[in-house]
Amino acid sequence: MANVTDSVSIFAEGTYEEQILELLSYITRNRSDEERGAFVAPFQNALKSGEGKKPIEEDVTRRKLILSKLLVEVRGLGDGSDKEIEGFFNLLFAHIISLYPQNSPEVKQYLTSLLKTISSSHSDRLSVKYRVVSNLFNTIPRTSPLRLAVYQTLLQIATSKNELNVLELTKPDIEKWLSEWEISDEEKSTFLKSIVDAYVQADEPTIAYDYTLLYVRSLPPSSKEAQDAALDAISVALRLPTIFDFDPLFKLDAVVGVKNHELFALLQIFLNSGLPEFVTWQSKNSQTLEQYHISASELEHKIRLLTLASLAFQHIGQNLPYSKIAEALQVEPSEVEKWVIDVIRAGLVWGKLSQTTQSLHISRATSRSFEHEQWQALEKRLVAWKTGLAGILDVVATAKRQGGQVAA
Protein backbone atom coordinates (compact mmCIF):
# COMPACT_ATOMS: atom_id res chain seq x y z
CA MET A 1 0.00 0.00 0.00
CA ALA A 2 1.17 3.51 -0.71
CA ASN A 3 2.41 5.25 2.40
CA VAL A 4 -0.17 7.24 4.35
CA THR A 5 1.83 10.30 5.34
CA ASP A 6 1.34 14.03 5.58
CA SER A 7 -0.47 16.06 2.93
CA VAL A 8 1.03 16.06 -0.58
CA SER A 9 -0.14 17.64 -3.84
CA ILE A 10 -1.32 15.90 -7.00
CA PHE A 11 -0.38 17.84 -10.14
CA ALA A 12 -2.45 17.60 -13.34
CA GLU A 13 -0.87 18.38 -16.72
CA GLY A 14 -2.54 19.93 -19.76
CA THR A 15 -5.39 22.35 -20.22
CA TYR A 16 -8.74 21.90 -18.51
CA GLU A 17 -10.29 20.73 -21.81
CA GLU A 18 -7.52 18.20 -22.40
CA GLN A 19 -7.91 16.83 -18.88
CA ILE A 20 -11.70 16.42 -19.21
CA LEU A 21 -11.32 14.70 -22.59
CA GLU A 22 -8.70 12.40 -21.04
CA LEU A 23 -11.14 11.43 -18.27
CA LEU A 24 -13.93 10.86 -20.81
CA SER A 25 -11.63 8.76 -22.96
CA TYR A 26 -10.92 6.47 -20.00
CA ILE A 27 -14.61 6.09 -19.13
CA THR A 28 -15.57 5.21 -22.73
CA ARG A 29 -12.55 3.16 -23.71
CA ASN A 30 -14.52 -0.09 -24.18
CA ARG A 31 -17.45 1.46 -26.04
CA SER A 32 -17.97 1.49 -29.78
CA ASP A 33 -16.97 4.55 -31.79
CA GLU A 34 -20.63 5.48 -32.19
CA GLU A 35 -21.39 5.15 -28.45
CA ARG A 36 -18.25 7.02 -27.57
CA GLY A 37 -19.06 9.88 -29.91
CA ALA A 38 -22.61 10.21 -28.59
CA PHE A 39 -21.36 10.19 -25.01
CA VAL A 40 -18.56 12.72 -25.48
CA ALA A 41 -20.46 15.18 -27.72
CA PRO A 42 -22.41 16.97 -24.94
CA PHE A 43 -19.20 17.46 -22.97
CA GLN A 44 -17.41 18.84 -26.02
CA ASN A 45 -20.22 21.33 -26.61
CA ALA A 46 -20.09 22.39 -22.95
CA LEU A 47 -16.34 22.92 -23.24
CA LYS A 48 -16.59 25.24 -26.24
CA SER A 49 -16.19 28.91 -25.53
CA GLY A 50 -18.30 30.54 -28.23
CA GLU A 51 -19.33 34.14 -28.65
CA GLY A 52 -20.40 35.69 -25.39
CA LYS A 53 -18.93 32.89 -23.29
CA LYS A 54 -15.94 33.08 -21.00
CA PRO A 55 -13.01 30.79 -21.76
CA ILE A 56 -13.60 27.51 -19.92
CA GLU A 57 -10.55 28.11 -17.69
CA GLU A 58 -12.21 31.28 -16.40
CA ASP A 59 -15.75 29.92 -16.11
CA VAL A 60 -15.93 28.20 -12.72
CA THR A 61 -19.68 27.61 -12.93
CA ARG A 62 -19.39 25.79 -16.26
CA ARG A 63 -16.43 23.73 -15.03
CA LYS A 64 -18.42 22.66 -11.96
CA LEU A 65 -21.37 21.62 -14.13
CA ILE A 66 -19.17 19.58 -16.47
CA LEU A 67 -17.44 17.88 -13.56
CA SER A 68 -20.74 17.03 -11.84
CA LYS A 69 -22.06 15.36 -15.02
CA LEU A 70 -18.79 13.47 -15.49
CA LEU A 71 -18.72 12.18 -11.92
CA VAL A 72 -22.15 10.57 -12.37
CA GLU A 73 -20.60 8.35 -15.04
CA VAL A 74 -17.86 6.96 -12.77
CA ARG A 75 -19.22 3.55 -11.77
CA GLY A 76 -16.14 1.48 -11.03
CA LEU A 77 -12.39 1.27 -11.37
CA GLY A 78 -12.58 0.86 -15.13
CA ASP A 79 -10.57 -1.48 -17.31
CA GLY A 80 -7.23 0.27 -17.39
CA SER A 81 -3.88 -0.77 -16.01
CA ASP A 82 -3.09 -0.03 -12.38
CA LYS A 83 -1.18 3.08 -13.48
CA GLU A 84 -4.12 4.28 -15.60
CA ILE A 85 -6.65 3.69 -12.80
CA GLU A 86 -4.47 5.57 -10.34
CA GLY A 87 -3.99 8.46 -12.78
CA PHE A 88 -7.71 8.64 -13.57
CA PHE A 89 -8.78 8.98 -9.94
CA ASN A 90 -5.89 11.29 -9.08
CA LEU A 91 -7.10 13.65 -11.82
CA LEU A 92 -10.70 13.46 -10.60
CA PHE A 93 -9.61 14.24 -7.03
CA ALA A 94 -7.50 17.16 -8.25
CA HIS A 95 -10.47 18.72 -10.08
CA ILE A 96 -12.82 18.35 -7.11
CA ILE A 97 -10.34 19.84 -4.66
CA SER A 98 -9.38 22.72 -6.97
CA LEU A 99 -13.00 23.69 -7.77
CA TYR A 100 -14.51 23.67 -4.30
CA PRO A 101 -13.48 24.90 -0.85
CA GLN A 102 -12.11 22.12 1.34
CA ASN A 103 -15.04 22.02 3.77
CA SER A 104 -17.80 22.54 1.23
CA PRO A 105 -20.74 20.11 1.05
CA GLU A 106 -19.90 19.39 -2.60
CA VAL A 107 -16.39 18.14 -1.80
CA LYS A 108 -17.75 15.85 0.89
CA GLN A 109 -20.54 14.59 -1.39
CA TYR A 110 -18.33 13.90 -4.40
CA LEU A 111 -15.46 12.33 -2.49
CA THR A 112 -17.84 10.16 -0.43
CA SER A 113 -19.47 8.95 -3.64
CA LEU A 114 -16.11 8.15 -5.26
CA LEU A 115 -14.87 6.37 -2.15
CA LYS A 116 -18.00 4.21 -2.14
CA THR A 117 -17.50 3.45 -5.83
CA ILE A 118 -13.89 2.41 -5.25
CA SER A 119 -14.50 0.31 -2.15
CA SER A 120 -17.59 -1.45 -3.56
CA SER A 121 -15.96 -2.28 -6.88
CA HIS A 122 -15.92 -6.04 -7.40
CA SER A 123 -12.41 -5.85 -8.79
CA ASP A 124 -9.80 -7.89 -6.92
CA ARG A 125 -7.15 -5.30 -7.74
CA LEU A 126 -6.66 -4.44 -4.10
CA SER A 127 -3.24 -2.86 -4.44
CA VAL A 128 -4.49 -0.15 -6.76
CA LYS A 129 -7.52 0.47 -4.50
CA TYR A 130 -5.15 1.03 -1.59
CA ARG A 131 -2.96 3.37 -3.65
CA VAL A 132 -5.86 5.43 -5.01
CA VAL A 133 -7.41 5.97 -1.58
CA SER A 134 -4.01 6.57 0.03
CA ASN A 135 -3.25 9.20 -2.62
CA LEU A 136 -6.46 10.98 -1.70
CA PHE A 137 -5.62 10.77 2.01
CA ASN A 138 -2.24 12.34 1.34
CA THR A 139 -3.73 15.04 -0.90
CA ILE A 140 -6.14 16.31 1.74
CA PRO A 141 -4.67 18.72 4.35
CA ARG A 142 -3.78 16.84 7.51
CA THR A 143 -6.30 18.76 9.65
CA SER A 144 -9.21 18.13 7.29
CA PRO A 145 -12.19 16.18 8.65
CA LEU A 146 -12.36 14.50 5.24
CA ARG A 147 -9.38 12.38 6.21
CA LEU A 148 -11.66 10.44 8.55
CA ALA A 149 -13.95 9.21 5.74
CA VAL A 150 -10.96 8.43 3.53
CA TYR A 151 -9.22 6.32 6.14
CA GLN A 152 -12.45 4.57 7.06
CA THR A 153 -12.61 3.49 3.42
CA LEU A 154 -9.09 2.08 3.62
CA LEU A 155 -10.08 0.23 6.77
CA GLN A 156 -13.21 -1.12 5.09
CA ILE A 157 -11.30 -2.38 2.05
CA ALA A 158 -8.65 -4.06 4.19
CA THR A 159 -11.19 -5.61 6.55
CA SER A 160 -13.30 -7.01 3.72
CA LYS A 161 -10.29 -8.97 2.47
CA ASN A 162 -8.77 -9.73 5.89
CA GLU A 163 -5.69 -7.69 5.02
CA LEU A 164 -5.39 -5.32 7.97
CA ASN A 165 -1.64 -5.90 8.07
CA VAL A 166 -1.38 -4.07 4.74
CA LEU A 167 -2.37 -0.82 6.43
CA GLU A 168 0.51 -1.08 8.92
CA LEU A 169 -1.61 0.66 11.55
CA THR A 170 0.14 1.91 14.66
CA LYS A 171 -1.28 3.49 17.81
CA PRO A 172 1.03 6.54 17.57
CA ASP A 173 -0.25 7.24 14.03
CA ILE A 174 -3.88 6.91 15.10
CA GLU A 175 -3.37 9.15 18.14
CA LYS A 176 -1.54 11.72 15.98
CA TRP A 177 -4.29 11.79 13.35
CA LEU A 178 -7.06 12.10 15.91
CA SER A 179 -5.26 15.05 17.48
CA GLU A 180 -5.01 16.73 14.06
CA TRP A 181 -8.35 16.01 12.39
CA GLU A 182 -11.00 18.64 13.00
CA ILE A 183 -13.72 16.17 13.95
CA SER A 184 -16.01 15.78 16.96
CA ASP A 185 -15.22 13.65 20.00
CA GLU A 186 -18.07 11.36 19.00
CA GLU A 187 -16.54 10.83 15.55
CA LYS A 188 -13.19 10.03 17.16
CA SER A 189 -14.82 7.40 19.37
CA THR A 190 -16.69 5.89 16.44
CA PHE A 191 -13.48 5.67 14.43
CA LEU A 192 -11.62 3.96 17.27
CA LYS A 193 -14.48 1.50 17.70
CA SER A 194 -14.30 0.65 14.00
CA ILE A 195 -10.60 -0.19 14.44
CA VAL A 196 -11.39 -2.40 17.44
CA ASP A 197 -14.10 -4.21 15.48
CA ALA A 198 -11.77 -4.65 12.50
CA TYR A 199 -9.12 -6.38 14.60
CA VAL A 200 -11.73 -8.53 16.34
CA GLN A 201 -13.00 -9.62 12.93
CA ALA A 202 -9.41 -10.33 11.85
CA ASP A 203 -8.99 -12.58 14.92
CA GLU A 204 -6.34 -10.29 16.42
CA PRO A 205 -7.78 -9.90 19.95
CA THR A 206 -4.61 -8.61 21.58
CA ILE A 207 -4.25 -5.75 19.09
CA ALA A 208 -8.00 -5.10 19.38
CA TYR A 209 -7.54 -4.80 23.15
CA ASP A 210 -4.84 -2.13 22.72
CA TYR A 211 -7.24 -0.02 20.67
CA THR A 212 -10.06 -0.79 23.09
CA LEU A 213 -8.14 1.14 25.76
CA LEU A 214 -7.98 4.15 23.42
CA TYR A 215 -11.67 3.76 22.63
CA VAL A 216 -12.71 3.66 26.30
CA ARG A 217 -10.55 6.70 27.05
CA SER A 218 -12.24 8.64 24.24
CA LEU A 219 -15.73 8.27 25.72
CA PRO A 220 -17.33 10.55 28.34
CA PRO A 221 -16.43 8.58 31.54
CA SER A 222 -19.86 8.86 33.14
CA SER A 223 -21.83 7.81 30.06
CA LYS A 224 -23.50 4.41 29.85
CA GLU A 225 -21.59 3.76 26.63
CA ALA A 226 -18.29 4.31 28.48
CA GLN A 227 -19.30 2.07 31.39
CA ASP A 228 -20.38 -0.75 29.05
CA ALA A 229 -17.14 -0.36 27.10
CA ALA A 230 -15.15 -0.39 30.36
CA LEU A 231 -16.73 -3.68 31.45
CA ASP A 232 -16.06 -5.18 28.05
CA ALA A 233 -12.43 -4.03 28.28
CA ILE A 234 -12.06 -5.64 31.72
CA SER A 235 -13.56 -8.90 30.52
CA VAL A 236 -11.27 -8.97 27.47
CA ALA A 237 -8.19 -8.27 29.59
CA LEU A 238 -9.10 -11.08 31.98
CA ARG A 239 -9.98 -13.44 29.15
CA LEU A 240 -6.86 -12.97 27.01
CA PRO A 241 -4.09 -15.37 28.08
CA THR A 242 -1.34 -12.89 27.11
CA ILE A 243 -2.58 -9.91 29.15
CA PHE A 244 -0.99 -9.70 32.61
CA ASP A 245 -0.59 -5.94 32.99
CA PHE A 246 -3.83 -4.48 34.34
CA ASP A 247 -2.43 -1.09 35.38
CA PRO A 248 -3.53 0.63 32.12
CA LEU A 249 -7.14 -0.27 32.90
CA PHE A 250 -7.02 1.34 36.33
CA LYS A 251 -5.85 4.59 34.72
CA LEU A 252 -9.11 4.88 32.77
CA ASP A 253 -11.78 7.02 34.41
CA ALA A 254 -14.54 4.89 32.89
CA VAL A 255 -13.08 1.76 34.53
CA VAL A 256 -12.93 3.47 37.90
CA GLY A 257 -16.52 4.49 37.27
CA VAL A 258 -17.66 0.83 37.44
CA LYS A 259 -15.98 0.21 40.81
CA ASN A 260 -19.20 -1.22 42.24
CA HIS A 261 -19.41 -3.93 39.60
CA GLU A 262 -18.32 -7.52 40.31
CA LEU A 263 -15.85 -7.44 37.42
CA PHE A 264 -14.03 -4.48 38.94
CA ALA A 265 -13.58 -6.44 42.17
CA LEU A 266 -12.19 -9.34 40.13
CA LEU A 267 -9.84 -6.97 38.32
CA GLN A 268 -8.49 -5.73 41.65
CA ILE A 269 -7.74 -9.32 42.65
CA PHE A 270 -5.72 -9.80 39.47
CA LEU A 271 -3.81 -6.61 40.13
CA ASN A 272 -3.03 -7.04 43.82
CA SER A 273 -4.19 -10.35 45.31
CA GLY A 274 -3.81 -14.09 44.83
CA LEU A 275 -5.43 -17.47 44.46
CA PRO A 276 -7.39 -17.53 47.78
CA GLU A 277 -9.08 -14.22 46.97
CA PHE A 278 -9.94 -15.42 43.48
CA VAL A 279 -11.46 -18.65 44.77
CA THR A 280 -13.58 -16.68 47.23
CA TRP A 281 -14.75 -14.28 44.51
CA GLN A 282 -15.55 -17.12 42.12
CA SER A 283 -17.67 -18.94 44.67
CA LYS A 284 -19.96 -15.90 44.86
CA ASN A 285 -19.90 -14.68 41.26
CA SER A 286 -19.82 -17.65 38.90
CA GLN A 287 -22.77 -16.18 36.97
CA THR A 288 -20.69 -13.09 36.16
CA LEU A 289 -18.08 -15.25 34.47
CA GLU A 290 -20.79 -16.90 32.40
CA GLN A 291 -22.30 -13.54 31.46
CA TYR A 292 -18.98 -12.25 30.12
CA HIS A 293 -17.88 -15.58 28.61
CA ILE A 294 -14.82 -15.91 30.86
CA SER A 295 -13.43 -19.37 31.62
CA ALA A 296 -12.94 -19.99 35.35
CA SER A 297 -10.21 -22.57 34.71
CA GLU A 298 -8.27 -20.15 32.49
CA LEU A 299 -8.59 -17.43 35.12
CA GLU A 300 -7.31 -19.81 37.76
CA HIS A 301 -4.30 -20.59 35.60
CA LYS A 302 -3.67 -16.88 35.09
CA ILE A 303 -3.93 -15.93 38.76
CA ARG A 304 -1.45 -18.69 39.67
CA LEU A 305 1.06 -17.27 37.18
CA LEU A 306 0.57 -13.78 38.62
CA THR A 307 0.89 -15.12 42.17
CA LEU A 308 4.17 -16.78 41.25
CA ALA A 309 5.38 -13.58 39.56
CA SER A 310 4.64 -11.59 42.72
CA LEU A 311 6.44 -14.14 44.86
CA ALA A 312 9.44 -14.07 42.53
CA PHE A 313 9.52 -10.26 42.61
CA GLN A 314 10.02 -10.44 46.37
CA HIS A 315 12.99 -12.81 45.96
CA ILE A 316 15.00 -11.34 43.09
CA GLY A 317 18.61 -12.48 43.33
CA GLN A 318 17.64 -15.27 45.75
CA ASN A 319 16.80 -18.97 45.63
CA LEU A 320 13.09 -19.62 46.00
CA PRO A 321 12.37 -23.13 47.38
CA TYR A 322 9.93 -25.39 45.52
CA SER A 323 8.04 -25.85 48.78
CA LYS A 324 7.32 -22.15 49.08
CA ILE A 325 6.14 -21.98 45.46
CA ALA A 326 3.89 -25.02 45.93
CA GLU A 327 2.38 -23.46 49.04
CA ALA A 328 1.63 -20.16 47.29
CA LEU A 329 0.12 -21.83 44.22
CA GLN A 330 -1.68 -24.54 46.21
CA VAL A 331 -0.20 -27.30 44.06
CA GLU A 332 1.86 -30.42 44.69
CA PRO A 333 5.66 -29.93 44.78
CA SER A 334 5.90 -32.23 41.77
CA GLU A 335 3.95 -29.64 39.72
CA VAL A 336 6.18 -26.70 40.58
CA GLU A 337 8.55 -27.03 37.63
CA LYS A 338 5.64 -27.02 35.19
CA TRP A 339 4.34 -23.77 36.67
CA VAL A 340 7.80 -22.20 36.65
CA ILE A 341 8.21 -23.06 32.97
CA ASP A 342 4.79 -21.52 32.24
CA VAL A 343 5.57 -18.29 34.09
CA ILE A 344 8.92 -17.97 32.32
CA ARG A 345 7.23 -18.53 28.94
CA ALA A 346 4.72 -15.82 29.82
CA GLY A 347 7.63 -13.39 30.28
CA LEU A 348 6.82 -12.70 33.92
CA VAL A 349 9.86 -14.28 35.55
CA TRP A 350 13.45 -14.98 34.54
CA GLY A 351 15.44 -17.53 36.47
CA LYS A 352 17.05 -20.95 36.65
CA LEU A 353 15.64 -24.15 38.10
CA SER A 354 17.79 -26.43 40.23
CA GLN A 355 16.53 -29.96 40.84
CA THR A 356 19.50 -30.54 43.12
CA THR A 357 18.54 -27.78 45.55
CA GLN A 358 14.83 -27.95 44.69
CA SER A 359 14.77 -24.20 44.17
CA LEU A 360 14.34 -21.48 41.56
CA HIS A 361 17.03 -18.81 41.40
CA ILE A 362 15.28 -15.54 40.46
CA SER A 363 17.29 -13.23 38.23
CA ARG A 364 14.42 -10.97 37.22
CA ALA A 365 10.65 -10.69 37.74
CA THR A 366 7.80 -8.45 36.65
CA SER A 367 5.76 -6.59 39.23
CA ARG A 368 1.98 -6.69 38.79
CA SER A 369 1.79 -3.04 39.79
CA PHE A 370 4.32 -0.45 40.86
CA GLU A 371 3.18 1.33 43.99
CA HIS A 372 4.62 2.11 47.43
CA GLU A 373 5.40 -1.52 48.28
CA GLN A 374 7.25 -2.06 45.01
CA TRP A 375 9.23 1.15 45.44
CA GLN A 376 10.28 -0.02 48.90
CA ALA A 377 11.42 -3.37 47.52
CA LEU A 378 13.38 -1.61 44.78
CA GLU A 379 14.99 0.68 47.33
CA LYS A 380 16.11 -2.30 49.42
CA ARG A 381 17.70 -3.97 46.39
CA LEU A 382 19.46 -0.76 45.37
CA VAL A 383 20.85 -0.33 48.89
CA ALA A 384 22.03 -3.95 48.86
CA TRP A 385 23.72 -3.49 45.48
CA LYS A 386 25.30 -0.25 46.67
CA THR A 387 26.64 -2.00 49.78
CA GLY A 388 27.95 -4.84 47.65
CA LEU A 389 29.69 -2.48 45.24
CA ALA A 390 31.21 -0.55 48.15
CA GLY A 391 32.60 -3.82 49.51
CA ILE A 392 34.13 -4.66 46.13
CA LEU A 393 35.71 -1.21 45.89
CA ASP A 394 37.19 -1.66 49.36
CA VAL A 395 38.69 -4.99 48.35
CA VAL A 396 40.14 -3.47 45.17
CA ALA A 397 41.57 -0.50 47.08
CA THR A 398 43.13 -2.78 49.71
CA ALA A 399 44.67 -4.97 47.01
CA LYS A 400 46.16 -1.89 45.34
CA ARG A 401 47.67 -0.69 48.60
CA GLN A 402 49.11 -4.11 49.38
CA GLY A 403 50.47 -4.33 45.86
CA GLY A 404 52.17 -0.97 46.23
CA GLN A 405 53.78 -1.98 49.54
CA VAL A 406 55.16 -5.20 48.03
CA ALA A 407 56.62 -3.29 45.09
CA ALA A 408 58.29 -0.87 47.43
Automatic annotation (TrEMBL):
Keyword Protein biosynthesis: yes
Main subcellular location of this protein, as a coarse class: cytoplasm
The keyword Cytoplasm belongs to this UniProt entry's keyword annotation: yes
GO biological process: formation of cytoplasmic translation initiation complex
Stretches assigned to the PCI domain: 184-367
InterPro entries: COPS7/eIF3m, eIF3m, eIF3m_C_helix, PCI_dom
Keywords: Cytoplasm, Initiation factor, Protein biosynthesis
GO molecular function, one term: translation initiation factor activity
GO cellular component, one term: eukaryotic translation initiation factor 3 complex, eIF3m
Pfam families reported for this sequence: eIF3m_C_helix, PCI
Locations listed in the record: Cytoplasm
PROSITE patterns: PCI (PS50250)
Similarity comment text for this entry: Belongs to the CSN7/EIF3M family. CSN7 subfamily. Belongs to the eIF-3 subunit M family.
HAMAP family: eIF3m
Role according to the record: Component of the eukaryotic translation initiation factor 3 (eIF-3) complex, which is involved in protein synthesis of a specialized repertoire of mRNAs and, together with other initiation factors, stimulates binding of mRNA and methionyl-tRNAi to the 40S ribosome. The eIF-3 complex specifically targets and initiates translation of a subset of mRNAs involved in cell proliferation.
Subunit structure: Component of the eukaryotic translation initiation factor 3 (eIF-3) complex.
Protein name: Eukaryotic translation initiation factor 3 subunit M
Organism: Galerina marginata (strain CBS 339.88)
